[in-house]
Amino acid sequence: MKQERENLKEIEGIQALFVVNFEPRKMMGEVSEGMLFDLGYADGLTPVLAVPETPVPNGARAG
Predict the structure, then answer these.
(1) pLDDT value at position 24?
(2) Does a structural domain hold residue 37?
(3) Domains in the chain: how many in total?
(4) First and final C-alpha spacing in the chain
(5) What's the rounded Cα separation, in Å, for the pair 63 and 61?
(6) Residue 36 within any structural domain of the chain
(7) Where are the beta strands (DSSP E) in the chain?
(8) Is the full-model pTM beyond 0.85?
(9) Among 4, 37, 57, 60, who pairs with 17 as Cys (CB 3.0-4.6 Å)?
(10) Distance from chain centroid for Cα 51
(11) Torsion angle, CA of 20/6/8/28, rounded to 10 degrees?
(12) The pairing of beta strand 30-36 with beta strand 18-27
């Protein structure tokens, strides 16, 4: 998402859907252990975060 957003601060503090507990992997110079879900990128749109409809406790699981 760094390439698609001019100001990453605009999404700071927003709840979003993540997949976590992946094997650590170095990506773009940083270690990643999860994946952030976004919508639109595969269709050539500026990606937006997949966010909950209402606030949920941090760490709540999908499913």
Answers:
(1) 93
(2) yes
(3) 1
(4) 25
(5) 6
(6) yes
(7) 18-27, 30-36, 38-39, 48-49
(8) no
(9) 37
(10) 9
(11) 40
(12) antiparallel
